[in-house]
Amino acid sequence: MYRRRRRSLLLGLVLVAAAAGGVAVARTGPPPTPPPTALPGRLPQAAGAGTHAAPQPVPSTGAGRFAAAGGGTSVQGEDGPLRRYRVVVEQGTGQDVDAFAASVDETLADPRSWIGSGELRVQRVADRAEADFTIYLATPVTSERMCAEGGLSTEGYTSCRLPGRVVINLARWMEAVPDYGAPLSVYRTYVINHEVGHEFGEGHEACPGPGRPAPVMQQQTYGLDGCLANAWPYVDGRRYAGEIIP
């Protein structure tokens, strides 16, 4: 009887001390699984989350045939001549033509884009006969071939513009360029505005000075020359430009 009471008393003291010290009393059964340990520079993976798949390589070549985005948009812009465009994507690239068209539409309808002048309007159409120009998303091999037809050498690396054709290099669309210093979305907006700017009659421009925004007509794919990445021709409601390069 005394021993039982002594054991009960001792057990009670242990439990009280454990509770006072913030120590959890283990239950019977196997110990709980410890949480994952974060590696240096990494966050612990959420429970049930799988590992991220490695980025898919960009195909260097495709079918050479293009699928066009259906439908169209309303007229964007306040006034001026209307320039209609259509959007196509090379087949075999794994790219969704409607998603690419949506990116193009969003860029060209933004008031910081070319309609910001108030003297130009744009609209996407599906019918080739109604389009003034076509925007292509093409693999490096196909884009190089298309650009070479107009006498332009891109070495399969850059995008280009020919009369009535804006050719966006798929590798640049998916990867941008090294040391661009801005997210991929910024580069994508830049390359659309740059090449469409050529279609609207704009020439190349130089960086106006270190630390300043790069003009959208600067060849930012080849480097920023001390400027900062910029995707828009209109900044703070005004046309932002650099010195014209002959």
Automatic annotation (TrEMBL):
Question: Is Signal given among the entry's keywords?
Answer: yes
- Per its UniProt entry, which superkingdom is the organism in? Bacteria
Query: What keywords tag this UniProt record?
Result: Signal
Q: Where is the composition biased (Pro residues)?
A: 29-38
Q: What start and end residues bound the annotated signal peptide?
A: 1-26
State the InterPro entries in the record: DUF3152 (IPR022603)
Name the segments for region: Disordered.
25-79
Q: Which residues form a coiled coil?
A: none
Domain DUF3152 stretches: 57-225
UniProt name for this protein: DUF3152 domain-containing protein
The scientific name of the source species is Micromonospora krabiensis
